[in-house]
Amino acid sequence: MRQNGKTVILWLPIFVKVLVLTMIKSRTTAPEAPAPEPLLLRVPDVARLLSIGETRTRDLIRERQLEAFKINNCLVIPRTSVEHFIQRRLEERQQ
User: Fold this and answer.
1) Which residues pair with 58 in a beta bridge?
2) Cβ-contact 37, 44 below 8 angstroms
3) Domain spans of the chain?
4) Where does residue 40 rank: exposed (0-12), middle (13-18), buried (19+ CB within 10 A)?
5) Could you tell me which residues are beta bridge partners of residue 6?
């Protein structure tokens, strides 16, 4: 039965209604695109990426091996800084 352009299912048990409506919705929605990588990372995120502690991460910032700046009193590190740090470490290791 249709009302105002929508299909109304009256006689089916509730679990079947949910299943049918889920199938209809899944056919009409586009798959979600993956979230873009963040440009700025916080200290715990960088520590997790580098498999080191937060204290060591802050030491690397103090030693200027990682670039960082504050936004609203929150210390953030550009993703490119982490990538350059890793690249420098790999080059040092090869020499």
Assistant:
1) none
2) no
3) 40-94
4) middle
5) 3
Question: How far apart (Å, rounded) are the C-alpha atoms in residues 86 and 95?
Answer: 15
More confident residue, 66 or 34: 66
- List Cβ neighbours of 75 (8 Å cut-off, separation of 6 or more): 42, 43, 61, 68, 69
The pTM of this model reads 0.63
Bigger pLDDT: 18 vs 88:
88
Residue 87 CB-half CA count within 13 A: 6
Which residue(s) pair with 7 in the sheet? 2
CATH, domain range 40-94 = 1.10.1660
Please give the pLDDT value at position 15. Answer: 57
Q: What is the pLDDT of residue 52?
A: 96
Backbone angles phi, psi at 8, to 5 degrees: -115, 125
Mean pLDDT in the chain? 82
